[in-house]
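Q: What would this chain look like folded?
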Amino acid sequence: MRAIPLVPLLLGGWLALPAHADDAQDQLKRLAQAEQQQSFQGTFVYERNGSFSTHRISHRVIDGKVREYLLQLDGSAQEVLRVDGATQCVSGTLEAGVSNIPDSPTHAFDAARLSAWYDMKVAGNSRVAGRPATVVTLTPRDQHRYGIELHLDKQTGLPLKSLLLSDKGQLLERFQFTDLNTANPLTDQMLQPSADCKPVQVVKGKTEPAKQHVAWRSDWLPAGFELSSAAARKDPDSKSLVTSLMYDDGLARFSVFIEPVSGAAVTDIRTQLGPTVAVSRRLTTPKGDAMVTVVGEIPIGTAERIALSMRDDATVPAAADKASATTGSK
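A: My prediction, written as structure tokens:
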């Protein structure tokens, strides 16, 4: 379970306490440890794009192994079982959209690294789900990422509430516990999915060694974002080589997918659902046209600039000039 990001809300005077960056870093370090060490069960609400859903979560840690079961309580009975971050089974409409990548990065905070890109402060105290909490804000130092407000349980360090805000203060995403139990032990039955929870199959297709086949790179990235993984595999349907690149700044992430289009009619895409954006742009290279798609929780203007900055080893100058002229105006 990840803690959901965000810029400080307009907090009232009841939260007006001295702010200390070192204290905020200590709180984030405690959060990173809590989700890997603390068992709990609770109910939370999730809000995105004006829509709400309610979920129950059972999170058990035994000998360093994390088993987590989520069940949506309203609408269709969607459920997910994860072990050490890898999805084991899903049910409902989640099935088609859930991946099972064994080496996907786990949720962790490097407070020292984040301090270069976010202004971190302890903003005060609050109370969520009947539990005292410490409010920590992470305000981005540029326009290329979102800010975060976290309400961390004083007893355990777990996130009781988090908000993700745009640079204009618009609420993009909310996660908030309505009840949390950290005292009672979790039984196997509490973490047992229903028969409708179908095992997730890893997508078939040969993954090519990244150093040998991934020639794509970005001419521009927001400060702090680094390449965390790269892969290239043959699409089982089109048989073309699809390159995937993942970048992160220690908190925010986005992925870039590049696929040859071979003269096919494709349409550029620019869309946003809550904090998640998807931007697709067609680029011309000496090897033919390619569709570049950027997906992640970053501002849409940033995603567009990244898409237009992608290059292979021999991108034609005209394409580079066009991208430079487009991004230079932002």
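The helical segments are 21-37, 111-114, 210-213, 300-309, 317-328.
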